[in-house]
Write the structure tokens for this entry.
Amino acid sequence: MARHPHPFQRHVVRRATRVLLAVCATLGASQAHSGGAVGAPYETSHATLPSRNVSDAAALLHAPPGAAIPSSPLDERLARDAGDGALDEFSLSAAALVASGVHDPQVLARHERRIDAWGDELAHSRAVTGAPRARARAIFDFLHRRILTGDYDSNSTELDRTLDEGSFNCVSSLVLYWTLCRRFAVPVVAVETPGHSFAVLVASDAPWDVETTCPDWFELSDAGRRRRQSPASTGGRPEGDHGGEPPRRELSETALVAIVYYNRAIDLLHRDAFARAVAANQLALRLDPASADARENLLATLNNWALDLCERGEREQALAVLRHGLAAAPDHARLRRNYVAILQRQAHEPARAAYTTSRGGHAGSP
């Protein structure tokens, strides 16, 4: 059978610590590619975004027609608390735990008590003294000695997993470092580059990047600083000079928590849990409406959800989901092509059914 003139196209989605590539399939005809969804861990990645301003992100915050989008009472409380761009009712760590999928208030309180106990332990050690950099290092060393006791895992965004297992990535380690620094009045901010996040110590002399995933970061930084200050040194660049590095964006608390929702949405999409993935992406956008990544991943989820519905024969529902995405991103190429493809498929079916019946066969999908 000839290939359909408008094949349905799967969407490419991205996360801060992993790229998920979903296969492009031609439904009702030969497959364009064999195989299923694949994923590969990366710390940085790039996505092609729709040529549209992110100011229309609010149009994506409502569920597609007829879709049941799950959210917990804690998710809703967090979204309301973050509505003004700041956290008042929730601490940063509590918000990250909710975004990680902790929806039982008792479990949330238990995790918060553990974090408070670690803070008390650090305070009783009297190690956090001196200049800001010395205090920042003491907190950093404690974090890696007592809390981040597992391995680096690019997918360990969920803070409850970090607390239980010790595994971590740039997001979960940054949340904990920022939380402890705030308790001891150490001036740090969170910064995002494409596909990565880290802390910056806002010291009196010059900002100092802190890679929270690297247990030896301060030792390596000191060694690099000594090399730069040596008269024999001929390489490197001055501190604060970021040369050709990717653009940076300072993250508010709510924007950092939005990344947790965003990464969780990618995990859910990878498992074809479309409704839950939509919910997580919507929550990411409610906490950070300027996040182009969360917006693109929400469009990706709607696209792949529509294809899944189409594969199940639920084409009207698939069209409704695609219309929802196109209402906010009318220039989005994949959504547009898949919408046309489904409409054309529906238009061709009556003629094909009549032809099959006239030949004495059985009408239906090939």
